[in-house]
Structure formats: structure tokens, C-alpha cells
Amino acid sequence: MNWDDAPADTPDRLVGSAADREDQAVEAALRPKELDEFIGQERVRQQLDLVLKAARQRGATADHVLLSGAPGLGKTTLSMIIAAEMSAPIRITSGPAIQHAGDLAAILSSLTEGEVLFLDEIHRMSRPAEEMLYMAMEDFRVDVIVGKGPGATAIPLELPPFTLVGATTRAGLLPPPLRDRFGFTGHMEFYAPAELERVVHRSAGLLDVAIDTDGAAEIAGRSRGTPRIANRLLRRVRDYAQVRADGAVTRETAARALEVYEVDARGLDRLDRAVLHALLKLFGGGPVGLSTLAVAVGEERETVEEVAEPFLVREGLLARTPRGRVATPAAWSHLGLVPPPQGGGTSQGGPGQTGLFGA
Ligand SMILES: Nc1ncnc2c1ncn2[C@@H]1O[C@H](COP(=O)(O)OP(=O)(O)OP(=O)(O)O)[C@@H](O)[C@H]1O
């Protein structure tokens, strides 16, 4: 899976995958602390288990780890688990926070032996910092430049061995020399509904929310494959259950609560549905150009393209084609609409252009 088209930051949406303030406040309490507690991502978990066990047996610092995947899938959580499994402290920072090589030098020179440095959004680090990181990762050494111009001198600085855990939503954007310096790369996938159900159950236990299997399944099915969203929906459902029901979360309570919040059975919210609705009702399922579609829903082109579309594409509801956006048969059935008869596309599609159905 290519994460380069991962959803953009969408902090205000209930189904946005970036962390909002409330998430940040409660996530620490919900994070699994050990590898065995971490749900799903079987392959990454097994591979990482081996990497960490081997390092522990050798009494060495673990290899540098790169974690790639969409926001909210557990990269920060895994980095904390790596530190915990290695009984090492962890320092957390991010690419955008390191704009100068000096910022990075300051962090690196204050690391203790074996410490884990978690660098979120590593693809957004500045170039000079990135180059400094190459040497630090490989030789545990940096050259600190003192002075300017012809009189500038490089003072070598030895670093204690440390483990860098880099996280990125865009592994494809990392320069190969940086990617190659990681001993282990784990690609995080979206979670299966059954895995999310376990996430919901676990979080409900920690938050002291009574929930049955069907209630957890209902929330999981609307969580877009993302634990962060599952936890957020659980909190909104808990509010509803507390105010409008007896506090217990059943399938019915969960469904009614999420209807109030306009998150439908497949996890689409109002924006997603507006895009689909326009595509189907106004343009007969497409093809239609992105700009036209954006005008039809009263949104910016970028919002439609970066916020709504990635999930619609992933869900197989919308296709991006060279001729424009096209609805799939699943989109029609999801909105309970009937596709026009074959060859019955709208004039938007032009003669002979009837989207997927005319092909
Ligand atoms: N495998 C998992 N099992 C249980 N809970 C999980 C799992 N993965 C993530 N979570 C929960 O989802 C929330 C978000 O996870 P986390 O912050 O680690 O995601 P992330 O990938 O680092 O996101 P971002 O890229 O936005 O920083 C956390 O509260 C965490 O408890």
C-alpha cells in the first residue's frame, strides 16, 4: 500500500485520523504498554519481537526502526513499546520540530546509552538535519560546525549508541540513503474489523464502559480501519449511552449514537457522503473532473481530493481515472441509489463516456 495518498490532517472530523486535543489527552491511558498487548499488525509485531529479543540477548542497543503507515495506526504506541521492551528511556520529537542541524545535534548529544529517539514525521525534517542524521545513525557521531564562512570548523562529537525509531506516513518520500540506514522497516496496515473490535473492547475495559460484542462490532465497522478513530467513536458512543440509555453500549445504542454524529455504517461522514451523492445524483456516477465535483459540494478542491477521496478510493466507492472521478457500483448501493441504465451517463461524461458502467 502506498501511503503517499494517506488522508491529510483532518483534526476537526470525528472520523479524521489525525489526533485532536481530546485524543491527545486520553491516548496515553489507552496505549498498550507491551508487544503482547498490541493488537493486530501480526507481521510487524513478530518481526519486531525478534529484532528486540535478539538485541536483548546480545546486550546490544536495538537496530534503528522505521515505521510507516497512515496516522492513528499505532506508530507512536509501538515506539513506546520498543523502549519499554528494551527497558530504555524514550525521547519524542518530530521532523517539523527539527528545522536546523543544531536542533538535532542538541538532542543527539543529550541522549543516554540505549535511549530510544522517536522521530515522528521524519520525512518532514530539514535537509541539513537529515544529513547530520545519516552519520549519527551509522557511526554514532556528528560533526558540529562551529563558526561561519572560511573560518568554520567541524568538531566531531561521539554519541552513545541509541535506537532511532522513525515514523512516516510517506515512506516513498524518504531519500534512499536515509531509508537504507534503518535495520528494520515495519509497514503498518489498516486494521481488520475483528482487530478493531478487540481494540474497542480493550479500551472500553480501561474506560470502564459496559459494552457487548455487537456494540463493539458496530463501532469497529465504522472506524475506517484505524484504532485512533475506534477509540474516539467509543467515547462519543459512551456519551450517548450515558445520556440517552442506561450507560451500556449495545449494537443499537452504538448505531443510534453514530447516526447522531453522522458517521454511517461504513464509516463515511457527511463530507464523504456529500461527495458521493454529488457524483451519483448530479453527474450520473461520472466521470467528472475534480474541480467540478468540488464546486458541486461547496468545498475546496484540496478538501475533496485529500480529505474525502482517499477513504472513498480505499473503500472501493470511487475511482480516480484519467477522465475524472467515477463512482463504482458499490457507491450506488451504499447510498441506496440505482445506477442509470448502460449508456445512460450524463452529458458531463461526454459521448460514449459512461464511467464504469458503460465500459
Ligand atoms: N494495535 C493497537 N492496539 C490497541 N490500541 C492501539 C493500537 N494501535 C493504536 N492504538 C491506539 O490508537 C491510538 C493512536 O495510536 P498512535 O498515537 O500510536 O498512532 P500513530 O500511528 O502514532 O498516529 P500519528 O501518526 O498520528 O502520530 C492510541 O491511543 C493507541 O492506544
From TrEMBL:
UniProt binding sites for ATP: 30-31, 72, 75-77, 138-140, 181, 191, 228
Region described as Disordered: 1-21, 338-359
Species name: Actinacidiphila reveromycinica
Enzyme Commission number(s) from the entry: 3.6.4.-
GO terms under biological process: DNA recombination; DNA repair
The protein's name in its UniProt record: Holliday junction branch migration complex subunit RuvB
Domain AAA+ ATPase: start-end pairs: 61-194
Function of the molecule: The RuvA-RuvB-RuvC complex processes Holliday junction (HJ) DNA during genetic recombination and DNA repair, while the RuvA-RuvB complex plays an important role in the rescue of blocked DNA replication forks via replication fork reversal (RFR). RuvA specifically binds to HJ cruciform DNA, conferring on it an open structure. The RuvB hexamer acts as an ATP-dependent pump, pulling dsDNA into and through the RuvAB complex. RuvB forms 2 homohexamers on either side of HJ DNA bound by 1 or 2 RuvA tetramers; 4 subunits per hexamer contact DNA at a time.
